[in-house]
Amino acid sequence: MIGKGKDRFDEDLGVVGKDGFSSGCFYFEVQVKEQTQWYLGVTRESVNRKDWISMSPLNGYWSVCLRYGVYQACDSSDYFFSLSVNPQRVGVFVDYEKGLVCFYDVEPMSHIYTYTDQSFNEKLYPFVCLGYWSNENSTPLIICDDYE
């Protein structure tokens, strides 16, 4: 769902899912196959969507990304990591009460990164982004609904 007015991103090519969660656990998958730049994860409802945004937990974003050929958790320390294969789908699992956001490579069912001991105090929404200002790769990011 693309927001209008104040809800719309003005410099990032990002969108926020239409369904938010404020308790319990939830899971979603994002198809990243063939895309060369992406950010995905969850964001809080009141997050800033204007100007340049540092997608870190301090700013209400819990995400991982592929940027300039490098995988990164967008944590306060910008944790870089390598993966043995490029994921085709990334799964995101959130436990709201435990303050946990986990990322998985769906095909081999392998762990990518986990944010722990986070404090959530408003609704969280799925979030995907193709980067800042432009992305010449026309392959879409798809929030999937065909998993079991």
TrEMBL record:
SMART domains: SPRY. CDD domains: SPRY_PRY_C-I_1. It comes from the Eukaryota. InterPro entries: B30.2/SPRY (IPR001870), B30.2/SPRY_sf (IPR043136), Butyrophylin_SPRY (IPR003879), ConA-like_dom_sf (IPR013320), SPRY_dom (IPR003877), TRIM/RBCC (IPR050143). Coiled coil: none annotated. Residues 1-148 form the B30.2/SPRY domain. PROSITE patterns: B302_SPRY. PANTHER family: E3 UBIQUITIN-PROTEIN LIGASE TRIM. This is Butyrophilin subfamily 1 member A1-like isoform X1. It comes from Labeo rohita. The lineage of its organism: Eukaryota, Metazoa, Chordata, Craniata, Vertebrata.
